Amino acid sequence: GVPTRSAACAGRQCGPSPVFGVDGLAFGVPTRSARAMEVSLIDAGGLPPGCVVSVKAGSVRRQGAADPEKLKLSFPTPAGAQSVQVDVLEQLGGAIVDLARGKELYQVDVGAIRASFRVVEPNAVAAAPLLADKPGGVPLDGPGPDNVRRAGGAELDHKDPDYS
Q1: Residue 62 lies in domain
Q2: 128 located within any domain
Q3: Where is the composition biased (Basic and acidic residues) (predicted)?
Q4: Residue 125 placed within a domain
Q5: Domains identified in the chain, total number
Q6: Which of 77, 123, 140, 158 has CA atoms 20 to 30 A from the CA of 50?
Q7: Structure pTM?
Q8: Is residue 20 a part of any domain in this protein?
Q9: Within a domain: residue 43?
Q10: What is the full per-residue pLDDT of the chain (164 aa) written as tens digits?
């Protein structure tokens, strides 16, 4: 069973928070807020060097390097929370990807690992429904033809001040 705060402490600040551990991870409810839960790494013994601890409480996921000096993750505590999901992630590789304006698709090769990613800037997300005026449509990466259409079919003139 998971230790919980007593009913007497529900909704208000009470002395020291209960702490319990699972294989080097400590879970506690901080006293500063009855609606927050903190997960801290106490001991990293047995964890692979350079790994990441990922914790999911309700619909919120937080993660950080498995460093006992630094890993403190705060979560809103849903009423009646009974458990959290803890994942230990080991890095298989990594790469720095230089982003180019107007480019969305990137290929990342790390050893035998090959992956493709789409990176969309916030202003590009709003423009993504714009399609070139041709069958099948293609996303616009710059100044488009005189007339373009949204996915719904409405035509816009690219000289319109509302079009950017």
Answers
A1: 7-89
A2: no
A3: 155-164
A4: no
A5: 1
A6: 77
A7: 0.48
A8: yes
A9: yes
A10: 433 433 434 444 443 444 445 555 555 544 444 568 889 999 988 898 889 999 998 889 999 999 999 999 998 876 667 888 999 999 888 899 999 988 999 999 998 999 999 999 887 555 555 444 444 544 444 444 433 333 433 333 333 344 33
